[in-house]
Design goal:
Structural class: alpha+beta
CATH topology of the largest domain: Phosphorylase Kinase, domain 1
Distance between the termini: 53 Å
Shape: globular
Order of helices and strands: HEEEHHHH
Strand order of the largest sheet: 1-2-3
Number of helices: 5
CATH class of the largest domain: Alpha Beta
Largest sheet: 3 strands, antiparallel
CATH superfamily of the largest domain: Phosphorylase Kinase, domain 1
CATH architecture of the largest domain: 2-Layer Sandwich
Number of strands: 3
Helix content: 40-55%
Number of domains: 2
């Protein structure tokens, strides 16, 4: 049997393209020493998750994502794949080092999708984001108050002031940076 194991990257298949400008912005935000123009090709040999060759300057990366329209989340769990690769990297030097993992949509992309589907414009997303964070902080404060009053004995509640401080810092960063993604 003659088996061909080398999967050569080709032009990305129609319908499986990546949002190049968003991808480049993400890589520039999250990967060290990345610069240059971006080129994207696709490895066509897989049968499930999509695999791409990303080139920026002299550096090459592999990007993996679930197939378009995937319904079985557990079968295409990229977070699980990322965590496994992170763990295996310390055991076997041949395992590729994962650099970054992200869910498909940022908060800003979710707002954009909402605007497209409803026809409504969300003029002040930072206000709604910070308002939501403060509501969560109030709920946590109420739980902590019950703990302090001895109305609940769950030891996990002792550290809730730290969560309130973190939420407050995230809200402050959202206001200062005038954005709702990549705040810390």
């Amino acid at each position: 049997m003659n088996v061909k194991w080398n999967d050569k990257a080709i032009t990305t298949r129609a319908g499986e393209e990546l949002p190049i400008s968003k991808l480049k912005a993400c890589l520039l935000d999250h990967l060290p020493n990345v610069s240059g123009s971006i080129k994207v090709k696709q490895f066509p040999g897989g049968y499930s998750n999509l695999t791409y060759l990303i080139s920026m300057g002299d550096t090459e990366y592999v990007l993996r994502r679930p197939p378009v329209g995937a319904k079985v989340k557990s079968g295409h769990d990229m977070g699980r794949e990322y965590r496994i690769l992170c763990g295996l990297k310390f055991v076997n030097h041949k395992v590729p080092a994962p650099f970054y993992y992200s869910e498909d949509l940022t908060r800003e992309e979710i707002i954009h999708q909402y605007e497209l589907k409803t026809g409504r414009t969300m003029e002040y997303p930072i206000f709604y984001y910070v308002h939501g964070l403060l509501k969560i902080a109030v709920i946590i404060q109420q739980i902590y108050y019950r703990y302090q009053q001895g109305l609940t004995q769950d030891p996990r509640f002792a550290s809730l002031p730290t969560a309130i401080k973190q939420i407050s810092l995230i809200a402050e960063q959202a206001i200062k940076k005038n954005k709702i993604d990549n705040l810390i």
